[in-house]
Amino acid sequence: MIQLSGIRRIFQVGEQTVQALNGIDLSIGPGEYVSVMGPSGSGKSTLLNIVALLDQPSSGQYLLNGTDVTRQSDDELARIRRDNIGFVFQFFHLIPRLTAAENIEMPMILAGVDSKQRKQRVLQALTSVSLLDRAEHKPNQLSGGQLQRIAIARAMIMHPGILLADEPTGNLDSKSGRDIIELLENLNRQGVTLIIITHDQNVGGRAKRQLRIVDGRLADGSV
């Protein structure tokens, strides 16, 4: 599903050249549960952005479901991202003026899904995260754990095969964090490929496959 070969990412910061990723070789198969851990500045967020098609490598090849996504136009990358990848972030990234239901619905509006199907799928999504009774609440009326559950429902509304979670528990209390991880793991049990970026060993250590990145390279001991 995901195959990275010789991935490098170089940034120019003023007169300084920074190599954020330095020759990453990585394969992740369908349905895997993978964590990527490492200290701040190690390159894990850069790796996430490349896997998510939010950034392009400076060199190397990225195959997603057999397609070389390093050679696609911006419009084609947007379509591939929409159809294949869901995102969950530390700070939720919900639209403040929209209700929970409207936030979940937004990706389907952008994809041109008809209104009847949108309504049905939003109800199913809210039920799946146990928040049907919060459908008309706006983000400022929800707790951190509820916000993250809405974000997960939005991420999965287009039925992507891959779910990327960037520090999904980093802004939550310990109980809400456990609930979110269990929800993500349940999606993985249903066949979704789950990739979690985290600095928290308690979170990353739950993954069936654990990767550690240091100075832009996968470290020895990654499995």
UniProtKB/TrEMBL annotation:
Keyword Chloroplast attached: no
InterPro entries the UniProt entry points to: AAA+_ATPase, ABC_transporter-like_ATP-bd, ABC_transporter-like_CS, ABC_transpr_LolD-like, MacB-like_ATP-bd, P-loop_NTPase
Residues in ABC transporter domain copies: 2-223
Superkingdom per UniProt: Bacteria
Keywords (A to Z) from UniProt: ATP-binding, Nucleotide-binding, Transport
Entry keyword ATP-binding: yes
Cross-referenced Pfam families: ABC_tran (PF00005)
Signal sequence annotation: none
CDD domains documented for this protein: ABC_MJ0796_LolCDE_FtsE
SUPFAM superfamilies documented for this protein: P-loop containing nucleoside triphosphate hydrolases (SSF52540)
Single GO molecular function: ATP binding
Name under which the protein is recorded: ABC transporter ATP-binding protein
Lineage: Bacteria, Pseudomonadati, Pseudomonadota, Gammaproteobacteria, Methylococcales
